[in-house]
Each structure stands twice: as structure tokens, then as C-alpha cells.
Amino acid sequence: MNRDFLSNFERPKPKREEPPAEAEASTLPDEAEYTESEYPLNVCYVWPEGNQAFSEYSRLAGGKINADYTCIQLNFGGEIVELTGIALLPLFESLMGHRRKFIYCDDARYNDLVEDAPVVNEINITQA
Length: 128
What we know:
This protein is mostly beta strands and 128 residues long. The chain has one domain (38-127). Helix content is 12%, strand content 30%. It is built from two helices and seven strands. It has helices at residues 21-27, 89-96; strands at residues 42-46, 52-56, 62-65, 71-75, 79-86, 102-104, 119-127. It has a four-stranded antiparallel beta sheet with strand order 3-4-5-7, with helices on one face. The termini are far apart.
């Protein structure tokens, strides 16, 4: 029998060993922004009481910010996310570039403690 007999047939591809989902989640960096192209690109909203929600950047149809940079509205294909706070222009620019990974909602009484940084005081998610 010829040794190359099997070379004409499709051979099964070796299986990739993937770490368990728990191990993968624990090795992800806990940064506020994406540093390079990571997959998947989501933005996660975190409220003070611990509730969380996320949206996929691939569904982001558009966004707008008001003139005094206190309100951002994002349209995620049928879902409207409204962020209210102070100095939100840098946050809007990072959302425009799909770089922001987490958005934390803080109590308004702490606004005076933060200088020249965006502070989100309210996150509202509604169905369009």
C-alpha cells in the first residue's frame, strides 16, 4: 500500500485547545478603554448599586452630544442610551472611536472632587 494514499483525502484539522471561559474572563484587563483591536467590542454600563448592562459597538448607529457637554445620546439599533453628567466631551470622543469599555455612573455629590474629567451621573436605556 502506498504511504501517500491518505494525502488525497481531507485530514481532520487539529483541535485548538481553548481555556475554560472562567479562566479567560479572569485574564482580561480591567481597563476602562480598549488599547488595541480586541474581540468583541462592547461597552458596559455600571450603576452604583452594582447593576450592569452592555451594548455592542457593531450596533451603534449614531450618537450626539449637547452644546454644554452634559448629555450624550447613543442609538444602538432600537435601543437609546442616554448618559447625563459633566464634561462628557472626552467620553463622547472615546465612544466615537469605539475605545470605551466601561462607563461608570457616579453620584452627583462627588462631581466637585473630579477636575477636568468626564463624570456620568445618570444612565438611561430605553427601547426606541
